Amino acid sequence: MPKFYNWQIKREVPYPYEHRRPKRQFAVVMDLNKCIACQTCTVACKTTWTPGRGQEYQLWNNVETKPNGFYPLGWDVKLMELLGEDQRWEGERYVGKTVLDGTDKETVIGWMPDDLDWTNPNIGEDEVNKPVEVGTVLESLPHPIWMFYLPRICNHCTYPACVAACPRQAIYKRQEDGIVLIDPERCEGYQECVKACPYKKSMFNYVARISQKCIGCFPRVEQGLQPQCVITCIGKIRLMGFINPPEKARRDNPIDFLVHIKKVALPLYPQTGLEPNVYYIPPINVPLDFLRQMFGPGADHAVRTYMAMREGKEPELQALLHLFGSTDRIVHSFVVGANEVIGLDEKGEEIVRVPLYEPFQVRPHKDERLGVVRQDIP
Amino acid sequence: MRLLLLVLFLAGFGFGEVLISKRIEGEIPLDPFSEVWKKAKAITVPLAGQTVTKPMVIEAPVKEITVRSLNNGKEIAFLLVWRDQTEDRFHLINQFSDAVAVQIPYRPSTDYPITMGGKGKRVLILHWTAFRQENIENGYSDVAKIHPDYAYDWYPHAKPPYRYPEDWANQYALAYIGGEKVFRKNTFRTPVREVVAEGFGSSTWKDVQTAEGKGVYRDGKWYVVIKRRFVVENSSNPEWGPGKATYITFAVWDGSSGHRGARKVLSYQWIKLKIER
Question: Which residues of B touch A194 (CB under 8 A)?
């Protein structure tokens, strides 16, 4: 089987098809420090794409609480079991098993969720990692008692397990934007993709008898617009754009800047070997051993960088985060000014200009001219 | 072992026994228990797990299939009987349907790869599935049938009471469930689909679907009849007909063993099919 280089784990992975990186690769960065699990993204996705028959429990976008929430039930615990205890990293290079290593009977190492595994999308919501004792005070980072919210969509992987596993070649990765789609007319509902996807983002519709998945809002992306889940996020935690491989990283590309330059946004379970393309800024309240398991060895650096930003030591990064949720258009490059960050489209034309600090005035409590005392009214 | 099997298909190894399609007059019944079937001689064909391409099946839960064939000059029919401990009539989340298929090369030759033909070597596959039989006999396996107590309030673009397929036949509602072609596949009033293939992974529904069939589960066995006209107009047909001979193979899917698609058991040799004039 041919092998291809996966930059996230700094080694080659086996893949059954000849592979070219797409011309552009869809990518989303999500800042987990800001997610409040309001599920606005989930609802936006649901009402746009999955209100149909047989889609009742399909959440192409979901938000789960970690460490005790899962959709479907136990998906990442099962993944950790499948990859075994031998998930070793040598520095930044992963030397353990990936799901693409397969077995002698199957192309991809996977597991099949049951019907009921999908029916508790909000299980474990707001639960912390262990019981809270009376008198516990959270006064330092990371927290001894912790949880965080993990919003998830399809990762539109560079080496998709669903594509590798489908025996009918009904799934394809688009050259123009790297979005991974299931062809409903080729799909016969074998659910090999459901079994293979380690992130469990391919779902079977038993009424239509086809598998369905997040389509990256491709009709929007084709028009230069960011997906529904990104633009509706009220916490402004998301930014969609196009990522380059590290050797072609551009400093003015917001996704490249976050992932390759600052290395503050990390892939989810990079040890799958699929090169997933949703990147997470890890939550700083969570102990690093958990973050390393979930986001790889880059977690330490990402948390340190984010902490430094909070102290004002990363002005460019801080400025870029202001672009999150500030426009519905896809930002191809950005410029940081004295007190503003400017998002530009593909042609380099300005889309949006966001002030880093809102102007504010301090008015004296007593207005001497009018001889009145001001109430707290602007 | 795998190498040996591979050599066997490449050699287009022939099976000793011959399946004779008995000529009868009049309509061929779809009922597998019709007396007419006693006129045809049965042959029993061994089956083994699909181990040519991934995903594979090593253990074969179904070891053999008994086959009879009749023809009336215009149509050919097969009665397929195999032992299966479990009756699997649904295709749901992680739940798969029993099924059986016959495969016929477009030209009567054993140099077709047994693995669903090959480039330029097209095969016709007639594929009966238990879930389609179930949909026809007991109504479509919709949400209300699978989960009778399921509560839902509203679906956009579909009309209440939201029965699929009836209430979903408009272009807006169809978009959520895979479009018109998917809808058409789900609403054929026959449990047998006709597909053509040129190698595994390439099977494709024919535009014209005319095959008929019926499957009955009784006493731990499936009894399935598959019937098709030799020549279907406005469609492609294998070179077969009364007085001619061609070849045939069989595949069985056991739903409760997780069989679907490539996960199946099959007969690894072309069997001569002599069609009586």
Answer: 94
